Amino acid sequence: MRLIKIFDTTLRDGEQSPGASMNVQEKVTVAKQLARLGVDIIEAGFAFSSPGDFEAIKTIGNEVEGPVICSLARAREEDIRAAWEALKDAPKKRIHTFHSTSDIHLKYQFRVSREEALRRSIEMVSLARSFVDDVEFSPMDATRTDMGYLCEVIAAVIEAGASTVNIPDTVGYSIPSEFGAMIKAIHEKVGKIDKAVIAVHCHNDLGLSTANSLAAVLNGAGQIECTVNGIGERAGNCSMEEVVMALRTRRDIFNADTKINTEEIMRSSRLVTKITGISVQPNKAIVGANAFAHESGIHQDGLLKEKSTYEIIRPESIGLYSAKLVLGKHSGRHAFKTRLKELGYSLEGDELNEVFERFKKLADQKKEIFDEDIEALISEGVAKAPEIYSLVDLYIVSGVNQKPTAAIKLRAGDKVVDKLEYGDGPVDATYKAIASVTNTKSKLLKFEVKGITGGTDALGEVVVSLEEDGRAARGHGADTDIIVAAAKAYINALNKLEARRKQ
């Protein structure tokens, strides 16, 4: 049985989803979870693209153990050198460089000849190889590239030192039979192909990214590039959880598996959802809310008699367990820390104290505290920004025949400011009061609210997206009072905007 490498690009291609940008702390948090998940390679960012990406790659390389840490780089010397500077202290590192090969890209975007594209590709792979032993090359828009020229490029970059050659379906154009045949042809036509791993990177524009990736495995691909929840450019990327569970469930067909610890799949999915603010559709395969829900009487009858009648995957195998009571207001720090470790979180010092303090406050408000509540408290800490503004108090008046009113007390620097505002509803009034105190002119792009668990005392989570002066920020807030959660989320986003403005 072959082991297929999982190259996770949630932090690079996934972050290119509109509104999904992450700060350094958030990227490190996701990277640590990806390491627990067991991915082989983490593409941590694009070092040359921004100081934030450079810092994230460098920090992840220093702090995250296990996976190979990779930086993307165009086939340009300055990109390759930036990738090396970001990666040089990482124990296991890879530079991933790319150049378009399709005539449509070469003519209209790069405006270079095939010969020039080939020369640049060879030179930059050689340069990357002078820094690291592990070099990956991608002929961008491979599925719309002339097959003869594609094979020529692949052979040349392998000769130049590429140990992985990635075949990207950059615009999601291919279909499974066609893509599988392309991978097979590459194996047959390229000399010294056994010197490199053939990888695939499929986009989901036609909804075929997972199917195309699996077709590639059947035809000899040894690495799949994917993202948690399938996030990414346009319609997204191949979904990590889908391709991993397809390989594991149908080993009889693929004769292949991965090293993924599948019990970490749900936790990874939830973490990426909370940090990016991109929700998973209910009927999403593997991690959607309805993926293991059965309403049909016939299905329910079968399940009660034998699980395998209608479940091809055990929910427990992806880390999906029934919510259970784990802690209460009398629980101590040791029990809380132990439960955090069971959930996959390792917190110490001030970070542990801060989350424990929020837990005790929540325990006074709720009778039952579930794993999802604890994860929400942790994600609230991850989303924290330097506290330029902080909520001191909030009083709301609202009702059928009452004009919604918000009286807010907000700390702004060294001052505590009181403000009263009216609005169309309690959230509107609250946001107007906060905006008045902070003098923000930001535009609210997104407001999303959901209950973390069931029950009228459920912890509510609010995610907002703001935009001001060309800068965007996402804020998170959680509380048993949904208006308070909304206020926290708004203030969190404003703090991020203010921090970015100062930077």
Characterization of this structure:
The protein is of the alpha/beta class. It contains 17 helices and 18 strands. Strands 2-3-4-5-6-7-8-9 form an 8-stranded parallel barrel, surrounded by 8 helices. The chain has a 3-stranded antiparallel sheet with strand order 13-14-15. Strand 3 (41-45), helix 2 and strand 4 (68-74) form a beta-alpha-beta unit. Helix 3 (77-87) runs parallel beside helix 5, helix 8 (209-218) crosses helix 9 (240-249) and helix 16 packs parallel to helix 17 (482-502). The model has no long low-confidence stretch (mean pLDDT 91).
Question: What's a concise summary of this model?
Answer:
42% of the residues lie in helices and 22% in strands.
Write the layout of secondary structure elements.
Elements lengths: L1 E2 L1 E4 L15 H14 L3 E5 L5 H13 L4 E7 L2 H11 L5 E8 L2 H8 L3 H18 L3 E6 L6 H14 L3 E6 L6 H14 L7 E6 L6 H10 L4 E4 L13 H10 L1 H4 L1 E2 L7 H12 L20 H9 L19 E3 L5 H10 L6 H17 L3 E2 H12 L6 E11 L2 E11 L2 E8 L3 H13 L4 E9 L8 E9 L2 E9 L2 H21 L1
Treating each run of at least 4 consecutive H or I residues as one helix, how many helices? 17
Query: CA-to-CA gap between the ends?
Result: 51 Å
Computed over alpha carbons, the radius of gyration is: 25 Å
State the helicity in percent bands: 40-55%
Mean pLDDT, as a whole number? 91
* Biggest sheet statistics: 8 strands, parallel, barrel
Tell me the β content. Answer: 15-25%
Strands of the widest sheet, in order across it, are 2-3-4-5-6-7-8-9
Unreliably modeled segments:
none
Structural class given helices, strands, pairing? alpha/beta
Globally, the shape reads globular
Number of strands: 18
